[in-house]
Amino acid sequence: MAMDCGIYGFINIKHRTFFFFFTFFCLVLSFSSCSSSSTVQINSNSILVALLDSHYTELAELVEKAMLLQTLEDTVGKNNITIFAPKNQALERDLDPNFKTFLLEPRNLKSLQTLLMSHIIPTRINGSVSSKTGSTRHRTLSLEHKIVIQSNETSQQWLVNGAKIVHLNDVTRPDGVIHGIERLLIPRSVQDDFNRRRSLVSIAAIKPEGAPEVDPRTHRLKKPPPPQNPGSPPALPIFDALAPGPSLAPAPAPGPGGPHHHFNGEAQVKDFIQTLIHYGGYNEMADILVNLTSLATEMSRLVSEGYVLTVLAPNDEAMAKLTTDQLSEPGSPEQIMYYHLIPEYQTEESMYNAVRRFGKVRYDTLRLPHKVDAEEADGSVKFGHGDGSAYLFDPDIYTDGRISVQGIDGVLFPHEEKEEVVDKAVTQERKGKPAKVVAKQRRGKLLETACWMLGTFGQHSRFNCQ
């Protein structure tokens, strides 16, 4: 009897142990099945993979930036979806640049997600299905917005919120379909957010003004100058805003605008000089602007005041041909560089079109009063004359709307200086013979006048006035 009780107790312990391990094994299986069911595996034949690999690259890029891939994967695991994909041109060219900038700002992520999810329906709608109905309303993944699909059997045209479906059933997969539409569908809430943000930006900041100034003569407040719109052209010509130099007289008036600089000239000049260095072949030009002269500082001040400049930059091979005498005279590097600065914003296309249309164009330079001539030659723009000419060699090295840098293969010098030297020599040769004739005529006149005076006073003269 005791043996039976011992065996019975051992059997109970054995059953309890088996029941415990069996229960634990079932829990593990159920937990693994739940976790596997919660994590949906997307195969290579999914509609999401097809969207990322399709020709709707702009829409796919926006989906990735909006961080919607996980949300769409969960939706595809539960339902078939229909995606109305705008064509790339609608997102790249036709879309307002300010609206696109608004969507890509990190603080407007919710608006971007709402916009994209309003193009997706959690049901499959094929062309054949939509053709059977005239007009249907469907709820999108954004939940707040619905879209209306209209079909016309006679014209075989489908409309989604007024946008034409240009590619029906463009991409089809077992878990969804993609229809191509002609433009972007913008929900009213996203448009309202954009309008609200744009109106706030226009009135957000008020520029601080300095303390009022008192005129010491009248002890009254000085009247402030009339306000200028940001980015408006300066009132004074660029020659009056230049700093006094060796060849510039009289001293210029101060540049317009005062402390209210609407352009960062220092950053722009620094950027274009770094571009010259990285471009290669223009290190000598950059060295002269920064180290040998103070033209870089002067150019940054002019750009900050609102002026525009076009730089004709000789390459290193052309700068190496300059002699020591040409650079050793005081102010000669500045004179050379001033002749290569045009107070206009010109690109290679604008200059070439001008010389093709007018044949010969004369541009003002910062070296008063000299101008640089440009004409069309061999399909390019040629500056200067004869042996001192230079061709537009590297077009549009740097263009930012304020500063334009055009590379040339020679150093330019004013043509008028050579003409003056030639004219002086020719004038001296031509004045040689007529000078004697003029002297003879003046000598005869003097003798004739002297004889007349002596005869008047009745005095004898040894001169024979005949």
What would your notes on this structure say?
The chain is an alpha+beta fold. It folds into 3 domains: 47-195, FAS1 domain, CATH 2.30.180.10; 238-412, FAS1 domain; 414-466, no CATH class. It has helices at residues 2-38, 47-53, 57-65, 69-78, 88-92, 97-104, 109-117, 127-131, 188-202, 238-241, 265-279, 283-292, 295-304, 316-319, 324-328, 332-338, 348-358, 415-457; strands spanning 81-86, 120-121, 135-139, 146-152, 157-160, 163-173, 176-181, 214-215, 220-221, 309-314, 341-342, 360-364, 371-377, 380-383, 390-399, 403-408. Strands 2-1-7-6-5-4-3 form a 7-stranded mixed sheet. It has a 7-stranded mixed sheet with strand order 11-10-16-15-14-13-12. Helix 11 packs antiparallel against helix 12 (283-292). The longest helix has 43 residues, at 415-457. The chain is elongated and about 135 Å long. 24% of the residues are buried. It holds the Pfam family Fasciclin.
Q: Which fold does the CATH topology of the largest domain refer to?
A: FAS1 domain
Overall geometric form: elongated
Write down the Rg: 42 Å
Helix content: 40-55%
CATH architecture of the largest domain: Roll
Give average pLDDT, whole number: 77
Low-confidence stretches: 1-11, 28-40, 245-261, 417-426, 431-442
Q: CATH homologous superfamily of the largest domain - what is it? A: FAS1 domain
Report strand %: 15-25%
Summed up, the helix count is: 18
User: How many strand elements?
Assistant: 16
* The CATH C-level class name of the largest domain: Mainly Beta
Number of discrete domains: 3
Give the terminus-to-terminus CA distance: 187 Å
| Largest sheet entry | 7 strands, mixed
Briefly note the structural class of the backbone.
alpha+beta
Q: Taking strands numbered 1, 2, ... along the chain, how are they ordered across the largest sheet?
A: 2-1-7-6-5-4-3
Protein name: Fasciclin-like arabinogalactan protein 16
Subcellular location: Secreted
Region (Disordered): 208-264
Domain FAS1: 43-185, 269-412
